[in-house]
Amino acid sequence: MSANQISTRHLLGIKDINEQDIELIFNTAREFKEVINRPIKKVPSLRDITIANIFFENSTRTKLSFELAEKRLSADVVNFAASSSSVSKGETLLDTVNNILSMKVDMVVMRHPAPGAPAFLAKHIQANIVNAGDGTHEHPTQALLDAYSIYEALGDIAGKKVAIIGDILHSRVALSNIYCLKKLGAHVKVCGPPTLIPKHIASLGVEISYNIDDTLQWCDVANVLRIQLERQEIKYLPSLREYALYYGINKARLDKLSKKTVIMHPGPINRGVEITSDVADSEHSIILQQVENGVAIRMAVLYLLASRKA
Ligand code: CP
C-alpha angle 66/82/92, rounded to 5°? Predict the structure, then answer.
């Protein structure tokens, strides 16, 4: 049976939470999903809470999803984008956040390019911190919404075969997904070019494959990741065209399989590189369900952290 209180004050990574926490988040998200599908989509649960969304890196889905989740819970919301702030004048991360907290902020949702930035903040400030993606480290709410979407699509996660395909080396989504899916009992395989798969990854209990067609035949779910050229300081691939040829998910590849595969992608999609439009927009794709579930999952995380008793 799942606990009725989350075990941690902050959500810094999936590595730090347990299976009962994930179950509690899913059960709470299920109730909030029902709320956001009603004509009146708002509940007063966080009426006395102020949340700052501070984003030092670009975001479309995560930022909008958190903001919507906060508003659906009736929280007061302030948004901060580093590009239009005094960070460009040399202000430190801690000074920036302390200034925001002086305005009586209770929770901070933070995206930052440096791995560990949310953990650093959590050591220095009183507010609850939610990691909205820290460099190549973790993206916990993405993993939770991905796992929840698999649960909805397949009715279970334990025993299911999930392939994570693409740029594993630079992906915080891959790492958080691996932690989450392994805690929930799934079999996980990573697949991509050898240069984009870190050598230590097998120590997390995942299989490694460099063969995309074998991997697609093996898995129940293919979670397809973007090639993160912006994080690649050296050339890991001859070209994106070659990547698309050898590892891109297209209809011809899926048509060769003897079974149906659920297709996922955390976004943003590079159509024609890691996935073609006829797959991303097909009946097998649950990409937009992932986005919808993101709001309910983030409502659950914020609500559970805010209502946690010390
Ligand atoms: N999936 C994800 O994190 O997307 P954004 O970068 O647009 O937030």
Answer: 115
- Per-residue model confidence as pLDDT tens digits over 267-296: 999 999 999 999 999 999 999 999 999 999
Hey, which of 53, 56, 60 would you mutate to test ligand 1's pocket, going by the most ligand atoms within 8 Å of its Cβ? 60
pLDDT of residue 96: 87
Coil, strand or helix: which one is 42?
A: coil
Largest Cα separation within the chain, whole Å, is: 59
Position 65 pLDDT exceeds 60: yes
| Domain spans, the chain | 14-138+291-306, 140-287
d(CA 115, CA 117): 6
Helix 19-36, helix 172-183: angle, nearest 10: 110
Which ligand 1 atom lies nearest to the CA of residue 132? 3
One-letter amino acid at 73 equals: L
57 CA: nearest ligand 1 atom:
6
What's the gap in Å between 72 CA and the centre of ligand 1? Answer: 20
Q: Is the pTM of this model over 0.90?
A: yes
Domain 140-287 belongs to what architecture? 3-Layer(aba) Sandwich (3.40)
Numbers of helices and strands, H then E, in the chain: 11, 9
14-138+291-306 and 140-287 share one fold: yes
CA distance 208 to 196: 11
Q: Helix 287-306 to helix 19-36 angle, to the nearest 10 degrees?
A: 110
Write the class of the CATH domain 14-138+291-306: alpha beta
Is 310 exposed, middle or buried, given 0-12, 13-18 or 19+ CB atoms closer than 10 A?
exposed
